[in-house]
Amino acid sequence: MSRTDPELHESVEGAAADIASMEIRGAATIADAAAEALAAQAEDSDADDPDEFRAEMRAAARRLRETRPTAVSLPNSLRYVLRGMDGETVPELRESVVESAREFRRELDQAQENLGRIGANRLRDGDTVMTHCHSTDALSCVEKALEQGKDISAIVKETRPRKQGHITARQLREWDVPVTLVVDNAARRYLDEVDHVLVGADSIAADGSVINKVGTSGLAVNARERGVPIMVAAQTLKLHPDTMTGHTVEIEMRDEREVLTEDEEAEINGDADGEGFAVENPAFDVTPPRYVDAIVTERGQFPPESIVTLMRELFGDQQGGEPWEE
Amino acid sequence: MSRTDPELHESVEGAAADIASMEIRGAATIADAAAEALAAQAEDSDADDPDEFRAEMRAAARRLRETRPTAVSLPNSLRYVLRGMDGETVPELRESVVESAREFRRELDQAQENLGRIGANRLRDGDTVMTHCHSTDALSCVEKALEQGKDISAIVKETRPRKQGHITARQLREWDVPVTLVVDNAARRYLDEVDHVLVGADSIAADGSVINKVGTSGLAVNARERGVPIMVAAQTLKLHPDTMTGHTVEIEMRDEREVLTEDEEAEINGDADGEGFAVENPAFDVTPPRYVDAIVTERGQFPPESIVTLMRELFGDQQGGEPWEE
Amino acid sequence: MSRTDPELHESVEGAAADIASMEIRGAATIADAAAEALAAQAEDSDADDPDEFRAEMRAAARRLRETRPTAVSLPNSLRYVLRGMDGETVPELRESVVESAREFRRELDQAQENLGRIGANRLRDGDTVMTHCHSTDALSCVEKALEQGKDISAIVKETRPRKQGHITARQLREWDVPVTLVVDNAARRYLDEVDHVLVGADSIAADGSVINKVGTSGLAVNARERGVPIMVAAQTLKLHPDTMTGHTVEIEMRDEREVLTEDEEAEINGDADGEGFAVENPAFDVTPPRYVDAIVTERGQFPPESIVTLMRELFGDQQGGEPWEE
Amino acid sequence: MSRTDPELHESVEGAAADIASMEIRGAATIADAAAEALAAQAEDSDADDPDEFRAEMRAAARRLRETRPTAVSLPNSLRYVLRGMDGETVPELRESVVESAREFRRELDQAQENLGRIGANRLRDGDTVMTHCHSTDALSCVEKALEQGKDISAIVKETRPRKQGHITARQLREWDVPVTLVVDNAARRYLDEVDHVLVGADSIAADGSVINKVGTSGLAVNARERGVPIMVAAQTLKLHPDTMTGHTVEIEMRDEREVLTEDEEAEINGDADGEGFAVENPAFDVTPPRYVDAIVTERGQFPPESIVTLMRELFGDQQGGEPWEE
Amino acid sequence: MSRTDPELHESVEGAAADIASMEIRGAATIADAAAEALAAQAEDSDADDPDEFRAEMRAAARRLRETRPTAVSLPNSLRYVLRGMDGETVPELRESVVESAREFRRELDQAQENLGRIGANRLRDGDTVMTHCHSTDALSCVEKALEQGKDISAIVKETRPRKQGHITARQLREWDVPVTLVVDNAARRYLDEVDHVLVGADSIAADGSVINKVGTSGLAVNARERGVPIMVAAQTLKLHPDTMTGHTVEIEMRDEREVLTEDEEAEINGDADGEGFAVENPAFDVTPPRYVDAIVTERGQFPPESIVTLMRELFGDQQGGEPWEE
Amino acid sequence: MSRTDPELHESVEGAAADIASMEIRGAATIADAAAEALAAQAEDSDADDPDEFRAEMRAAARRLRETRPTAVSLPNSLRYVLRGMDGETVPELRESVVESAREFRRELDQAQENLGRIGANRLRDGDTVMTHCHSTDALSCVEKALEQGKDISAIVKETRPRKQGHITARQLREWDVPVTLVVDNAARRYLDEVDHVLVGADSIAADGSVINKVGTSGLAVNARERGVPIMVAAQTLKLHPDTMTGHTVEIEMRDEREVLTEDEEAEINGDADGEGFAVENPAFDVTPPRYVDAIVTERGQFPPESIVTLMRELFGDQQGGEPWEE
């Protein structure tokens, strides 16, 4: 990594800065900006020969990549675009990168809609879904089902600690979907009234595991026990190619104040100094594939055990490392 | 039921009034007061013949019974005392009732301690328990284990909506037990670090089901899936003899404000009138016996499938109705 | 067995003859006749001493027993009555037998009603039950639920080969219960609409197994997989005390013509002689206790794993052999 | 759909008419006729330019497609042939279509034999299979196993309501396979004697579900519980590409007279008017992939969770809609 | 415990010494000797009053008890005999103890035979059993089945580390039972050929768990998965009443040389000093009740979940401590 | 097969001879030698035209293939190289074969290292693995984890009959990994202390089954029941393409003397002639995919249900037979 990096286009530098500063945020927005920046780099490249061009593109990708080392959508965007780089001459290479970025961005733009349409097809008129947390991918399935003229009801888990269920409930109410809000503890009791558990995903691993808001796995195990199918809505941006090489997804531990106020903590600890007392607040958990019936993406639905095939198709098999590595 | 009830002793009337007004409350306190009142009625009875005496006792029991028709411990106390009524003469009957009440109260006084000792025997030095809600019976097992010199740690679920986990955490911290507090959604993620799920019970049914704070059943299903044994601590007062005759336990629906503030609800509903939106807040749920490894009572531990045997032994088999019926 | 049997009362001989010739038939009717005959024998006995009286009663029981060696209700009736035989003198013994027979018959008379009331308590207003075969015990639960003012619907499996589901459907229609009739193959598809699987039993074994119309076990396994509770309605007459000593219940193989007409068989075999082709038509199958949620009897409901306790209570523990053995 | 469709070849019109009138019927026969018609259209096309040619082919495909909107094999045939259409000139395009149709038909012709050979390899000498319904694909596995010199026995479920088990039994008897016929209810009882459950499929969904004759799913759940592997024999024609986009397979409801004669129904309803009584007669049910061990196709065997990969390979990923859409 | 113990009979002292020195060994032999000693103490007692007599008996029991604090059969013998002590006068008390001891010893003498007969009834002609370790109770079931004229075959697991399977195989061969010996690792592969898993027990806990030779639980889990019933043969002597009060059964860790020779260990450790390397050799493991179909005792067969009822019946409910405590 | 085979290169004949005589042995070594031999044949070929060249290569492959008809790695090597044969002229064909062989050998050389790195990523610092048998692929995962600086402990099953666990233990000790050795029977008892079951594979079938040392499947079933993930480490050489066409993997039966010495056998049989006694010693067993969480190969990790996709990618789909067939 000690080589001189080629000069990078200002679009790349700008996008990198904005992603790093979180002015650009959200999985899809980041991915879009990264693809756009690569296209700009390609279009304006002064590279003299194919090798130089390729090096330039790799450098641009590296620059963007390092802004958010744990994001999933960002490297997926870079992988997709660079995998489309093909040709014997600089103009061919340029054209291929620009086209690959365009394709990526076009699909990204359509992805949630397409995903929603596919997911909606799994829902039947009169169905009740149970939701966990807030996922625009999952909600898109409901929205499209409504557009198909289906009546859908929802049982919404509040999703402690941050109660994103309230956001889900609000969105569903805007669409006039009947909503019953319950605490997470009540989920099993209501599963008998539910036709589908419908959740999103933070990311999806090559072994078919679904990483999603903490509580998903417990819900899925109960849904299986109650005979209720579990459907995960996740754009292919959420596929996590690092996991193809065995990497596990690091689970973020969030601020304990989401769980407990200082006053509540003081009351628990009484006069003691708080040693021996801890709050743990993991953001996500891991649902094994055997508790998921289908992963719905914008490219079709898949059993979780075969999502690795799609991952390899879209982002390569990670053999020989990342496309931006020297 | 249209017959003239015999005159009741002031102790009975007093206890009935205090139970009805909830001045006397808590499962064990109510049961104790009821047994005491029956003993007072027996001791001061002027009944001329055995039939009159028995009628008087039945009337006293009915009076007490009707103050809280859905309580479990109250009728169990009455059943126990009246089942001990035996003899051919008024003095014999009186003596038997007084003795039966004394025995009941003595056992009740010892019950939690005995239960705790039995439950503690299931715990090993170094074990970690996961708790749900707040149960003095369950905590008694930990307390006795500590007294036995065992190191015990706890992962405490906060137990939405009322967060009784905080009370549990506080008690455990007073005993210097290391506590990790987690939201209910995080339970499955921490089960791999847990040696026992330890919960109490609101009541226990003849088919071996455990009725307890909502969320218990979902936790138990996950514990089974993770290979963690589930232990329910419940005094025999919690056994629910009505269920021997097939009655199901009515699940109380609590105030929705425990789940959602008015402001939160307003935000969800936006400008809409709230129709189509509901909060459901069940207090309890039902855990089938196949997800419970042992029910620990003050009279020993039992597989949930055989608790009905203990129920019949203590409170009769409900054939021929309740002992206080005419 | 080479001793001279005492002379038997004509009631005993008459009942034995009628049971043998199947003029008396049906589990409850046989049991009632047997108890009545034993009472008659006791009342008219000329026995000079207690031993002679006891020998006479045992002989009467043996006589009745041998008329239908594989029935379950017949020996249960004899066991119950003889277990009640108690006393030091002939009059005491006589009185005890007569009383025991009276008690047995009184309870028998009430049993289905009591069972129905208990089973009905498990059903809730609006519930849908799925039935298999035709069982008056199971139907009694529905009848009592209707009397309790509950709305009950039914999905009725036709129950090949003999289609006793039609009889069930007819009875339910008489009570105005909405009925959907399906073939047995369609059961799993409709389980999601069902709140209880409700079946009777041919007999119940000490290990908690339920022997019932063939197809019950497959249904129960599917109901468990779909999260639907399974409820077996069976009077205690159906308990099979022989199984306490490990005996398995012989499954009757019925006429193949119930399954296949001669024409159908000819068509299958074509010109061949039929060797290599067989029809097997077992009447019953065995459902393990882990697929049954509750056995509802007239003496309360029990988890299947604890029914052996009731069996021992009612009919003894089979230690020292049958009460009628010399 | 308001554009002028190009003129279609008489072969296309003829095939369309015959398919619509069901003169051409059976999944394979329809598929073959459709491919043949597309080839004829291609061979005789007068199209002046590639676009016109392509439009003509799409129109022909649409014409054929609309004759049987719910068939699976018909659109699969069209997809396969049109996916093979490739080239820059009309002659190239023509050649590619003709070749693609020829390939499709050649494979179709061999498919059942190839499938049978693959399935036979899973069977061992001396094995007993249990069959449900009648499937020539499933039977082909047995036939090839017999040709391999293996002894195979069969337990044949009669498969109410239409008793296609009789057809299966007859075929097996012609091959001299020992057959035991049982009612569907008896299946679980005989699973312990069975080495493989062997069934066909009506269609197979992208989430790995198997849609087959009603009763299959209940059998599969029981087979799993009994430790018996479940093998589905299905030509790739049965793969249902619509399900890649989330569509569920509509389950046909068949005539209630298959289940119940008018006389039987009258007897059930007695004097009542039949309101409140219904017969439901679904043709198929859905078996989740976790209850299937292998799907045997003419292109190899697959775990059900990976069949979507084959589906995408053969028929495209349904991105951008059907190949015949304008 | 600081009181002067009454003088004990020489039989008691002798039995105590022989048990302590292991001259008397084996669960049944120890139990028999203890009961005999109590009877001798009772017969020769010079106690002046009932209280003195009772104190003497308790002292005798304590003396015997303390010789082998972890045995199960020894205290069970003492519990049984002392529970039979009843009466108002010394002669009555003496008579009751002598009779209780006689009854206990008579039943003990018959227990294995009775158990064998009951277990044999579960086996059918032609059945194959799989055995683990060596259990005379389990073998008694096979022996009685052979006496009933049934053909029984066996698959015998060698049962590392001590290979007691060889003893089982030898016994079965003496009875001419066809035996296939396999290593423990091969068990699952042969389960499909097995009709019953048949094992003994070291002890049985109140929660229905079976403590038996290490490897039993893994076998039972696999047998359940393969659909093979699991049958535990255990005389009631093996019931472990301490577990009623929650005590867990301490698992003996045996000599590592049973697992590994010194040479083998040296080869593993190479030149290293062996730190970081350990052999663990537990004698037993715990099988949860849900993996056991029936426990066969000399008093009948029981589902494991109801064995606690038998335990309470035979040995009391442990309320108020042990009968020998002051 | 009656045609005259082309003359084969001495490298091919030499390799064939050495493989047949087992001078070349071990899955990877054989595969390497075969690829090298094919490259030599290609380089020195005098073929006049492409057809001749191809025939020569097929003949060389057949020659090599027939030396060890049941090996897995050998035909995989041949398939890989021949699938890379591509071109219109002899030089092109030659070049492609040489390059394909080079690629295969290069990957083979790296495979275990790559696999180890991928597997290591699944392990976390502080994890304990349980091993069965001895697998260099599995050990490579541990080795790489150690290189990543992770602390790993191991519980090593001895793996009767051949106790390859000792070899595993020795290797782990060399790397200073803390090892606890247990008999196979003790595995379930220690699963609660284990984070991963880590095993190799003898071969892997298209239906996702893992064929590995006997005992693997029983361990996997128990690991699933205990909630412990199961990870199989297997280079793609172990994929068994024959299974794509339904072939099952023949399980080798090994010498009974591995299980039982002659003396032990004599002792079991006593004076009898040994008829009726058998030892069965299967080398492997089959673990269904539902008990495996991930298969780790050098090309990434896969759920077992999708390994068929990789198999098809690397070795073709077996349509049209093997590449060496005429």
From TrEMBL, chains A, B, C, D, E, F:
What this protein is called in its record is: Ribose 1,5-bisphosphate isomerase
Q: Which UniProt keywords apply?
A: Carbohydrate metabolism, Coiled coil, Isomerase
Spell out the SUPFAM superfamilies in the cross-references: NagB/RpiA/CoA transferase-like
EC number(s) per entry: 5.3.1.29
Does the entry feature the keyword Membrane, yes or no? no
NCBIfam families found in the cross-reference section: eIF-2B_rel, ribulose_e2b2
UniProt GO BP = L-methionine salvage from methylthioadenosine; pentose catabolic process
Q: Give the molecular function GO annotations.
A: ribose 1,5-bisphosphate isomerase activity; S-methyl-5-thioribose-1-phosphate isomerase activity
Other observations noted: Reaction proceeds via a cis-phosphoenolate intermediate.
Quick check: keyword Isomerase in the entry? yes
**What is the enzyme's class at the highest EC level?**
isomerase
